[in-house]
Write a structure and sequence with these properties.
Largest sheet: 4 strands, mixed
Number of helices: 8
Strand order of the largest sheet: 1-2-4-3
Order of helices and strands: HHHEHEHEEEEHHHE
Distance between the termini: 32 Å
Structural class: alpha/beta
Length: 221
């Protein structure tokens, strides 16, 4: 059944990529195919009101660099675009800083500072969601889990996999497969989605391929 489902999924992708041009001239959202598309700000599009949060200052950026180092702080406008815009290119935030911690202690220190300063935070995994929940609405501090991708252990007796939140689903699947285990969750975005996001959304509790109990034993650090 798994092989059949996988083949069917691959077949659909092949057909979509190789469909004759005459069948692709009409689309519901043609502007998304344009490389010059400028996604409007979510706050302007939906007329959302900003809550009474502080704005990030140079002093805040200095504190962040002390916590995660220069390599863990992104402020360049071009680099920020990928963190501000969702995968469907329909939502766009206005964040001025992205933080990429490597440890839970760094996450704790960041959140402590943001709480003291009343800075809004937007946690972000692989940014593969389809409802805009992974990107900021205003100028929230984006807390990216991309560097927290370490696989800690896999208990051969209990089947409990311990991993950090930023581990990519496909990486976990390969890791488990090499050890005679199966991660019973298969998504089109498995090459970029983070297990922390899947766990948060409750996808790990679904009875995917009839193997619900084993996957619920996955622990996220």
């Amino acid at each position: 059944m798994l092989a059949r489902k996988t083949l069917h999924a691959h077949s659909r992708i092949w057909l979509r990529l190789n469909r004759p041009q005459s069948q692709t001239t009409t689309t519901r959202h043609p502007v998304r195919c344009s490389s010059t598309l400028v996604v409007p700000f979510t706050a302007d599009r939906y007329h959302v009101r900003r809550e009474n949060f502080a704005k990030v200052t140079a002093d805040d950026a200095k504190v962040f660099r002390e916590i995660v180092g220069d390599h863990g702080v992104i402020t360049d406008a071009a680099d920020l675009e990928g963190y501000n815009v969702d995968w469907l290119k329909i939502c766009r935030g206005q964040s001025k800083v992205v933080l990429r911690p490597k440890t839970t202690q760094q996450v704790s220190d960041i959140l402590r500072h943001c709480n003291d300063r009343k800075l809004a935070v937007c946690p972000q995994g692989g940014n593969t969601g389809l409802v805009g929940g992974s990107v900021p609405v205003f100028d929230e501090v984006v807390l990216s889990m991309g560097l927290m991708n370490r696989i800690v252990s896999l208990d051969p007796m209990s089947g409990v996999l311990i991993t950090e939140a930023g581990a990519v689903l496909e990486t976990l699947e390969n890791y488990a497969s090499e050890r005679g285990r199966v991660v019973p969750l298969d998504l089109g975005a498995k090459g970029s989605c983070h297990i922390g996001g899947e766990r948060r959304l409750g996808l790990c509790n679904k009875n995917t391929y009839g193997n619900r109990k084993r996957f619920r034993q996955t622990r996220i650090m």
